[in-house]
Amino acid sequence: MDVELIEIREFIAAHHPFDMLPDASLEKAAGSLRGLYVRQGKCLFQTDDTVDALYIVRTGALETRDPSGEMLARVGEGETAGAAALLRGGRAVNVVEAIEDSLVYAMPAETFHTLRQHHKQFAYFFQPAGGERLRSGRAVAGQGGPRGSGPAHAHLDLMGIHLGDMLKRAPVTIPPDATIREAGARMSEQSVSCLMVVDPADSGGRAAGILTDRDLRNRVVAKALPYDTPVSEVMTPDPLSLTADDYLFDAMLLMTRHNIRHLPVMKDGKLAGVITNTNLVQTQNTSAVYLVGDIFKRDTAEGMRDALEMVPELILQLVETGASAHNIGHVISSLSDAATVRLMALAEMRLGPAPVPFVWLAAGSQARHEQTARSDQDNCLLMHDSYDETKHGEYFRAFTRMVCDGLNICGYVYCPGEVMAMTDQWRQPLKVWKNYFSKWIDQPDPKSLMLSSVFFDMRPIYGNHALFHDLRAFVLKKTSGSKIFLAYLASNALSRQPPLGFFRNLVMIRGGEHANTLDLKHRGIVPIVDLARVYALDAGSPSVNTLDRLETAQEKGAVSKDGAADLRDAWDFISTMRLRHQALRIRENKRADHYVSLETLSNFERSQLKDAFSVVKTMQGALASAYQTGRM
After folding, report:
1. Which residues form the CBS domain (predicted)?
2. What average pLDDT does this structure show over 435-445?
3. Where in the chain is the domain with CATH 3.10.580.10?
4. pLDDT per residue over 109-162, tens digit each?
5. Average pLDDT, whole number, for the chain?
6. CA-to-CA distance for 387 and 402, rounded, in angstroms?
7. E strands along 305-371, which residues?
8. What is the mean pLDDT of residues 444-465?
9. CA dist list (Å): 574 to 105, 542, 603, 614
10. How many CB atoms lie within 10 A of CB 483?
């Protein structure tokens, strides 16, 4: 290979998407190029010309204009022109003119189409920007990622192993009328930590209950029950279960949320076996199960804080082994739930039972099951209308203060806006909460819209869930018929724009602590969360998780199938990028944040990020049009 050809090869290999080609294809591509000098003001091609090559700018700059003269794009060193014409059969629609004296390389159309045919990464780059290209890019990344990006992480086994594949033995059973002495002897004989309670008369093979070693300790020994007590009196009836077709991750999540260590597995409607926390730990990356158990053993907030010190390491493990952002959010949020529930149990032990029914509500990312690294707390308290400030106020002030203080000690710091249950305004009976929402919906001023974005994302954590369901039904009934409110909410959802410039270039933060970075949370993830909230409320959906909202909104016709799919993909990609960035900072012993430098991203990742932001911008435009907000 002569010196000039080597130089051309090295030049195109340094630019995307040529950097993704294997060496043999890269050499053939370089060998096909011919150089052209284009003087400033001269056209490379014009409307209706036949384009027979892809043009790669070596030096100088080109500008694309439509037939009316409006500028559409500007390309510089390493960038290309003519691809759109080649993809439509060679007919030029626009005008490409040199705005500087330029040297360009011309790649014959035949070479261009051959590369597209044989290399999906190359073909993906030249697809029209947006959701379809984002999906294609994700598929390409799954096949190995961009050239020079290093080995891809293995997929998390928890996401790919079916529970049926984990069952090593048939379940050990005992009838409900057996004694606890017989149960203990059977557990010892079979070396198991639980027994499935099955009625021999039930031909369906279903489990009437489960008896664990923890049940024997807490319900039998601790209470000094006689050994001839029937198993049916101490077992857990109707235990939670999954099917053999569910995944190991489903088991981990269910066990984490409910603080259980044994999970029956059903196949064809019959009991097939039991998954234990030991099974999970033997697989990998399941410290969440132990963390929840550890949290519930702690008697102080300081003790829980020590247990939760493992959260950054857990995030790192999950990211490195390929867990999705959706799944990671559910796991980490479940740990926040566990800490909250344990703190409330400790508060009740100290203060006594609550004088009136209540329910503790999480808000924000915890409510949506979208937490990552620990963040500030957003919560509130909903009480029964029998609440009397004079009689009950002191109890609930002390109760909520203990819980919020405890969460702060655990690392979930106080909300800067004081959206917490210990704030008097956000600790109210049902009738007051209904008045709040009525005012926000009927009088959508800026403050109301800000509060709506917080409190329309709520989920019950502990207490009387019926109170929350009553409030939610009231809210959904009002919002589903309030087009004016939804229009204001839609307008508010457009206040955060993705960081894209006029030519789809990524716009960095200027100045300050995070200068020259991208804010993936507030400029990428939050806009999608806001869009999904509007669609869900319009559809009357009770969902709060962003992906769930998009799915139900699509089913009810509030957003198109393609629009929902594009937003789901954009959310997943941006969230995954954010998690990987946080994992990198954790590895470097730095505080996790959401400010990403372009220097840490490959060309492929930058291109994907542009596509994700383009999806958000397009859907924001569609929302503005649908609700006639006057924005955008």
Report:
1. 166-229, 235-291
2. 92
3. 159-284
4. 999 999 988 888 788 778 765 555 566 555 555 543 333 333 333 334 455 578
5. 87
6. 20
7. 358-363
8. 91
9. 34, 25, 15, 12
10. 12
- Which of 160, 370, 339 is CA-nearest to residue 259? 339
Write the burial class of residue 369 (CB in 10 Å: 0-12 exposed, 13-18 middle, 19+ buried). buried
**C-beta of residue 586 within 8 angstroms of C-beta of residue 313:** yes
Rounded Cα distance between 615 and 632, Å, is: 14
**Which residues on adjacent β-strands are paired with residue 506?**
500
489 pLDDT above the threshold of 50: yes
Of 15-19, 80-84, 183-187, give the lowest mean pLDDT range.
Answer: 15-19
Q: Does domain 3-117 have CATH number 3.20.20.70?
A: no
Rounded to whole angstroms, what are the CA distances from 416 to 339, 344, 408, 413, 519? Answer: 20, 22, 12, 9, 19
Q: How many CB atoms lie within 10 A of CB 415?
A: 22
Q: Which has more confidence, 270 or 396?
A: 396
Give per-residue pLDDT as tens, 513-528.
899 899 999 999 999 9
Which runs of E-coded beta strand occur in 99-251? 102-108, 173-174, 194-197, 209-212, 236-237, 242-243
What is the per-residue pLDDT for 322?
76
pTM above 0.85, yes or no: no
| pLDDT digit string, tens, across residues 364-380 | 999 999 998 767 899 99
Closest CA to 265 of 256, 255, 275: 275
Q: Name the DSSP class of 601.
A: S
Indicate if the pLDDT at residue 293 is higher than 80: no
Q: Which two tokens stand for residue 302?
A: 């300081």
Angle formed by the axes of helices 603-627 and 526-539, nearest 10°: 40
- How far is residue 415's CA from residue 395's CA, in Å, rounded to a whole number? 22
Name the H helices within 102-150: 109-118, 120-125, 131-141
Assess whether pLDDT exceeds 60 at residue 430: yes
Task: Give the burial string for 11-42 (b: 16+ CB within 10 Å, else e).
Answer: bbbeebbbbbbeeebbbebbebbeeeebeeee
Q: Smallest Cα–Cα separation from 593: which of 606, 603, 584?
A: 584
Tokens encoding 15: 């630019």
Residue with tokens 């799915």: 551
Q: How many CB atoms lie within 10 A of CB 559?
A: 29
Enumerate the CATH 2.60.120.10 domain ranges in the chain, comma separated.
3-117
Topology annotation, domain 481-632: Four Helix Bundle (Hemerythrin (Met), subunit A) (1.20.120)
CATH superfamily of 159-284: CBS-domain (3.10.580.10)
> Token pair of 385, please?
């209308």
Residues in the chain: 632
